[in-house]
Inverse folding.
């Protein structure tokens, strides 16, 4: 059959893509300290060690604060930019939007280096705040892309109709536009949260002495002893990601069902 | 409003209408002006979208703005609604200058082309949307919503999700949502263009009934001349940001002021003419294919664009056509050859070439005949006799 070759290719592709991730939980529960087959036995010690590790907990808290803050900032700014660019025409619009979207294609290392130089030059102390700044910058293009689609799919007369029915410009936005773009806002939040959580280069350059999850994991990989702990941390992150994606998909589908739109397939 | 049997007859193009009741016109003429536009201009950058609009729409009138796309009709409607600022001129609604009144404070409500039904709300929530600032109690508002839904034939639909409705139902929700606020003027932007033909004709009739029932001034924007003729008390035909003719439907149809208006409203045949002489009462013309005719000045269109070939115009139904040799009663008769026969069921359209004096044939003219049982339809290529009367001709020069 003609399709069998393609099917084999697809299966091989999926194994190559996901098998390494499946190894994480396997070794996280393996009692051996060396990451190699055969497996020794079952243990939850690594998880206990992970929870007891002060630096790791600090890195986790930092990453969470950074991801939540930059996701919030990037999404708020994204709402403004996406609405302005879809609703109004103003001089220099293409240029301005181009500049905002530029970090999408700019190598992160360049952003990280130039930000480091500028921040040091103006005397800002490196902290998780500077990482939040950097992450907001790189998340913004993604949130704008998602939110522009959300705003663009809205009929312009919806807002006019609300205004015509006696609402103010602000209440028309709040009562009609905001509920309808809410799925887009949630998508943008989750997308930028994910980007920020696993971002390494900017965090490495701008965090100063503060660890984030990716920089902590990277620093620990040098010590073979801590690798099983990293494996259990990886397992926790995978489970969290799956939960997050499921929540995102739930909200997306609910949004579609509530407004009766066709499902064009989200990120799942 | 739930009457579904009353559909408008589906002829294309429309036959001349019987005058609406003279009473209604007299009533409307006595009514106070509801919308007045004085020298309204609108520029978009360099583009001159409205070029000096002057019109008065009276209270209780069903008024249509008719024209091809890009003629400024929607812009004019949106300036009345307050969605567009005007560049110069005055718009008065119910005697008040609207210059500093934003759309949400004007006594107008709009039914949008896309209906703009809020998809995340139920039907009842949509209809009640404009009542948010209304001080009435919840129960009173709910009763008002139910009444508005009943008026548009959607009683009991309140709990449904708005996005699950059909096109015709959305249209009704949009109407109920606007009418519940009891505006002085209801603005309708191509409200029927998204509906299929049958639904559209049904809604036309329902809209007329609804308008009579609520007595609110309706201003309709449409590019469909048939729709305008069916529904309106008066029609303003617009081209390039100007009103070309503002008249009653039957006047617009039977006495268009220019070739362009004549061409836009229904089908108009044109034959080139030579003007022979003119005196105080009549103009004497020589029409290609029809011969010499005296036309009173009432049949001469007022406006004429320069260096255009003078033309005589007549509607397809102004002529009758029978197989050659069959007796006819029309005051003037010509020989002709049938070029094309198009059968429409109730009507048949013929393209016929009229005999010229020099033995050649004229350009084809379109003639429509109502089909009568037992009367044969002449065949393509056969000779026929065409009957007509000079009183149905209009001279454009």
């Amino acid at each position: 059959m003609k399709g069998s070759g393609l099917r084999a290719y697809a299966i091989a592709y999926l194994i190559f893509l996901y098998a390494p991730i499946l190894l994480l939980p396997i070794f996280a529960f393996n009692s051996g300290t060396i990451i190699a087959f055969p497996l020794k036995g079952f243990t939850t010690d690594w998880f206990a060690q992970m929870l007891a590790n002060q630096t790791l907990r600090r890195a986790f808290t930092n990453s969470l604060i950074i991801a939540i803050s930059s996701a919030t900032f990037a999404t708020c700014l994204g709402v403004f930019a996406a609405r302005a660019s879809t609703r109004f025409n103003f001089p220099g619009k293409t240029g301005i939007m181009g500049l905002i979207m530029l970090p999408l294609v700019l190598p992160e290392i360049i952003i990280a280096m130039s930000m480091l130089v500028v921040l040091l030059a103006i005397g800002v102390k490196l902290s998780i705040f500077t990482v939040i700044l950097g992450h907001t910058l790189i998340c913004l293009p993604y949130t704008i892309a998602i939110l522009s689609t959300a705003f663009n799919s809205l009929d312009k007369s919806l807002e006019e109709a609300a205004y015509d029915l006696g609402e103010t410009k602000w209440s028309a936005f709040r009562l009609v536009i905001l509920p309808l773009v809410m799925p887009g806002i949630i998508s943008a939040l989750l997308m930028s949260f994910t980007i920020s959580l696993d971002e390494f280069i900017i965090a490495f350059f701008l965090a100063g002495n503060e660890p984030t999850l990716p920089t902590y994991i990277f620093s620990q990989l040098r010590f073979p002893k801590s690798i099983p702990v990293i494996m259990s941390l990886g397992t926790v992150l995978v489970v969290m990601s799956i939960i997050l994606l499921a929540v995102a998909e739930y909200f997306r589908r609910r949004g579609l069902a509530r407004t009766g739109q066709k499902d064009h397939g989200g990120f799942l | 409003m739930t009457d579904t049997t009353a559909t408008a007859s589906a002829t294309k193009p429309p036959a001349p209408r019987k005058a609406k009741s003279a009473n209604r016109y007299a009533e409307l003429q006595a009514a106070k002006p509801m919308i007045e536009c004085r020298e309204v201009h609108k520029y978009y950058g360099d583009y001159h979208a409205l070029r000096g609009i002057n019109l008065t729409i009276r209270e209780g009138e069903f008024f249509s703005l008719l024209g091809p796309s890009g003629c400024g009709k929607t812009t004019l409607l949106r300036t009345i609604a307050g969605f567009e600022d005007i560049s110069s001129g005055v718009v008065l609604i119910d005697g008040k200058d609207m210059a500093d009144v934003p759309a949400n404070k004007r006594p107008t409500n709009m039914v949008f082309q896309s209906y703009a039904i809020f998809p995340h709300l139920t039907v009842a929530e949509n209809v009640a949307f404009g009542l948010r600032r209304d001080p009435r109690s919840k129960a009173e508002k709910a009763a008002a919503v139910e009444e508005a839904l009943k008026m548009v034939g959607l009683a009991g639909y309140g709990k449904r999700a708005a996005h699950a409705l059909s096109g015709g139902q959305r249209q009704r929700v949009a109407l109920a949502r606007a009418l519940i606020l009891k505006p002085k003027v209801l603005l309708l932007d191509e409200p029927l263009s998204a509906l299929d033909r049958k639904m559209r004709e049904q809604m036309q009739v329902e809209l007329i009934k609804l308008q009579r029932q609520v007595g609110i001034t309706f201003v309709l924007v449409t590019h469909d001349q048939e729709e305008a003729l069916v529904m309106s008390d008066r029609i303003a035909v617009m081209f390039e940001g100007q009103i070309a003719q503002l008249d009653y439907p039957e006047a617009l149809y039977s006495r268009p002021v220019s070739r362009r208006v004549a061409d836009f409203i229904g089908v108009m045949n044109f034959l080139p003419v030579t003007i022979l002489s003119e005196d105080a009462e009549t103009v004497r013309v020589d029409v290609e294919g029809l011969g010499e005719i005296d036309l009173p000045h009432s049949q001469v269109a007022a406006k004429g664009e320069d260096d255009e070939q003078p033309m005589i115009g007549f509607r397809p139904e102004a002529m009758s056509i029978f197989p050659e040799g069959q007796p006819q009663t029309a005051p003037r008769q010509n020989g002709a050859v049938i070029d094309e026969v198009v059968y429409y069921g109730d009507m048949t359209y013929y393209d016929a070439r009229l005999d010229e004096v020099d033995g050649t044939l004229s350009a084809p003219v379109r003639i429509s005949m109502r089909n009568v049982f037992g009367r044969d339809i002449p065949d393509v290529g056969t000779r026929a006799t065409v009957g007509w009367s000079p009183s149905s001709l209009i001279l454009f020069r």
Q: What stands out?
A: The CA atoms of residues 124 and 210 of chain B lie 20 Å apart. The radius of gyration of chain B is 24 Å. Confidence is low (pLDDT under 50) at residues 1-19 of chain B. The domain at 22-107+183-259 of chain B is CATH 3.40.50.300 (Rossmann fold).
